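Moderator note: this is an archived Q&A kept for reference. The question asked for a predicted structure of one protein chain; the sequence and the answer are reproduced below.
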Amino acid sequence: MLEKVDQVSRAGNATNVQQLKLQHSEAGSFGQLLRKEAEQGNGVHFSKHAAQRVQQRGIQMTDTLLDSINQAVGKAREKGAKDVVIISSQAAFIVNVTNNTVITSMSGAEMRDNIFTNIDSAVLV
């Protein structure tokens, strides 16, 4: 479950991943990956909603997938994208490039027959 760290500051609806503490004892868990990124101070941030969806939908976040997302956001930023869908073999992530924030995610099975709206770019990883 998500727990707010003391004095969480919010920018819009996105909670900075550096300010989230995910409790999960499993090695290589989503929580550990988020903490690692928070310590490094770079990369995309997951909104509270997106972090919950990753956990609820059983999306396996690995270092490789997180690196791919960060690289895709960088490429989208270079092309002037503002909102991008990043599609991998496991999941899709809607990212606000301007704020460097993952807004939501869905598993591979949920991508079928769905329509992505309000995006200006797509990146396949």
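Archived answer notes: The radius of gyration is 14 Å.
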